[in-house]
Amino acid sequence: MKKKIVYFLTGIASIVLVAFLISACSDDQKNARVEVRLTDAPGDYEEVNIDIQDVEVNANDGWRSLDIIPGVYNLLELTNGLDSLLGSVEVPEGEISQIRLVLGDNNSIKTDGQVFDLSTPSAQQSGLKLNVHETLQGGITYRFLLDFDAAKSIVKTGNGSFKLKPVIRVITEATGGAIKGSVSIPESTPAVYAIINLDTLGTSFADSTGGFFIGGLPAGSYRVSFAPATGYTIGDVTNVPVTVGNITDLGAVVVVVP
User: Fold this and answer.
1) Total domain count, the chain
2) Cβ of 137: how many Cβ atoms within 10 Å?
């Protein structure tokens, strides 16, 4: 009796695992990945230190915070093509309308060897909102580069203090592509692999309708390989092109029953 119970629980665990993997595949197709990075145009200062406490994106389901490490960033270390990853987050496909930076109190500049505080009243209260209005496809990674113009963002007042009035340009680019398709016999329930050279860069599982989706792939030419259930055979699909920002549709892949 004990052995039967163990086998039964093992079977339940296997079913739950398969259901989880199929659900994860479906979620990958519906979600896009957003990365927010920070860069700067050169300014006439020795340091420009910005205290970033939170980064949020406004997607279809409302505001979502990125997974970031809060802290002080010296913008002048991020010039001439250099940038820093602030964080990333998964969001539902559809429109992302805004990015919001929430700044702390520890903002400063250094000029002529002296350090001056930067006051940021509006950003401290509600966050600095940047309009983007970009439509995202599920399974694609998007990079939002915040180009912070330090020279234009710092205002010297009549009493010798400094204020931060951020001037930021948002540059958007997709950084990956995806592959989707279906198998002609859903009951074959194959695992699906996207392979480039000898590296497997993505994995999926066909769902109950036979559909599969592999997102977040770098551009290149792929071989898509299948590992179906016992009794089924599926040939590899070769020379599958993946381009940035696009989803390559393989259509229906034929399943052979020997």
Assistant:
1) 2
2) 17
